[in-house]
Amino acid sequence: MSKLHRHIWIFKPFVAVLAVLMLGMVSGCAGNVTAPTYTTSNGTPYTPFTFKNCDSTITYKQPPQRAVTMMQSATEVMLALGLEKQMVGTAYLDNPILPEYQQAYSQIRVLAPKYPSREVFLGVEPDFVFSTEESAFAKEALGSQSELLKLGISSYLLPIECDRPELRPESVTMENLYQEIREIGRIFGVEQRAEKLIVQLRSQLQATQQKLGKVTTKKRIFWYDSEDPPLTVSNWGIPNHIIELAGGENIFKDIQEKKAWVTVNWEDVIARQPDVIVLIDANWSSAEEKRRLLKSHPAYSQLKAVQQDKFIVIGFSYTMPGIRNVAGVRQLAEALYPERFQQ
Question: Distance between CA 114 and CA 131 in Å, rounded?
Answer without folding.
Answer: 12
